[in-house]
Amino acid sequence: MSVLSVPTPAYLAEDEFAMFGRSVGRFLDQHASAETVAQWRESGIVPRGAWEEAGKAGLLGLSTPVDHGGVGGDFRHEVVLMREIGLRGIEGWDLTLHNAIITPYIQAFGSEEQKARWLPRMATGEVISAIAMTEPGAGSDLQGVRTTARRDGDTYVINGSKTFITNGQNADLILVVAKTDPAAGSRGISLFLVDTADAPGFERGRNLDKIGRSMADTSELFFNDVRVPAGNLLGPVEGQGFVQLMEKLPQERLIIAVQCMAAIEYALGITLDYVKQRRAFGKPIIEFQNTQFKLAELKTEATIARIFVDHCIGLHLEGRLDSSTASMAKYWISDLHCKVVDECLQLHGGYGYMNEYPIAQAYKDARVNRIYGGTNEIMKLLIARTL
After folding, report:
1. Which of 101, 227, 367, 375 is deepest in the core (most CB within 10 A)?
2. Close Cβ partners of 368 (under 8 Å, ≥ 6 residues apart)
């Protein structure tokens, strides 16, 4: 239950979405309880069995067409899933990356053979996916990637390294960004589907040790003369990768905003519970004017953010969300997320700094949202181009 008094947008008003939300909630309460999530954080990875359970419950392939093994829903179902995960403070089980970031590339640009091979198994959890954009020397500047894919007969030979790759340890399928023509700039970028079970020369590096999102397996990946069939090129011709990325990145950035919004509501909820129970100077700290004013400010800003996010989702459903507006949502909501969690931790006093309190984990998990999906500084550059 959200702490904000924001009406449900019209596009989510059908009973179907409320019912689906309750179903997702029951699944998460059973399969991703606080005790289970703590174990995942300790081990640094979500076990494959959990992915398979999510597949059985119909939480994978939500917006994949039924004829490709999916549920046949749309982005609204993905939003419900994101919110249910975020409202429970579960950061690092990247179902949404799998469902709503990687799958759409295959649906939009893949051949019928690629769709038939991968989408049904992605929907069951048999195949876990990742997208490999970032490199040690190339982050937000995708034109700076140095990984290459050289055509050799009926194969491509991929060489290079990637880092900070979410789902990197679990991934069976990796969507790799590579240069097929290094001299052509953005026109020389292509995307490839790499089957990790059939890729001699492919190596996974270590599961990276992060500040937060500790149950997310974030990895280094190495491609050393990895040969993939020419048919693994995403799209009919080389050089379309940058265009494909630019088409799909607004949805990725909106997703980050949606996830941050749910995390804001989670942080406010657990903080309200805390200040009502915690006593100082003989009374609950919610009764102090400073506490009331601070929470009033945070609730106001969170309400503004929620209305904006709901508006952006509506634009996206209508096919009208442009890159600039998606960038606004990504940067501003992720900035606000960090601010809200920091203020909420402060209201916990010294206990907020203790790892046993959920707000401490929320604080650690929040920070990366201002970095991945394109840094917030890059978002401002994209917005500035429209001035």
Report:
1. 101
2. 210, 211, 212, 213
Q: Where are the beta strands (DSSP E) in the chain?
A: 129-132, 148-152, 155-166, 173-179, 189-195, 202-207, 218-229, 279-280, 283-284
Please compute the mean of the pLDDT values over residues 49-60 and round it to a whole number: 98
On whether the CB atoms of residues 170 and 141 are closer than 8 A, the answer is no
Q: Angle at the Cα of 150 (from 147 to 153), degrees rounded to 5?
A: 155
Which residues are known to be catalytic? 252
User: Residue 252 corresponds to which tokens in the numbers above?
Assistant: 């990725």
pLDDT in tens, 155-201: 999 999 999 999 999 999 999 999 999 999 889 999 999 999 999 99
Q: What span, in angstroms and rounded, lies between the C-alpha atoms of 350 and 132?
A: 39
pLDDT above 80: residue 279: yes
Distance CA 148, CA 157 (A): 8
Residue 150 has pLDDT above 80, yes or no: yes
Q: Is 6 in a helix, a strand, or coil?
A: coil
Cβ-proximal residues to 160 (8 Å cutoff; 6+ apart), any chain: 135, 145, 146, 147, 148, 178, 223
For the chain, domains (ranges, CATH) are 10-124 (1.10.540.10), 129-238 (2.40.110.10), 243-384 (1.20.140.10)
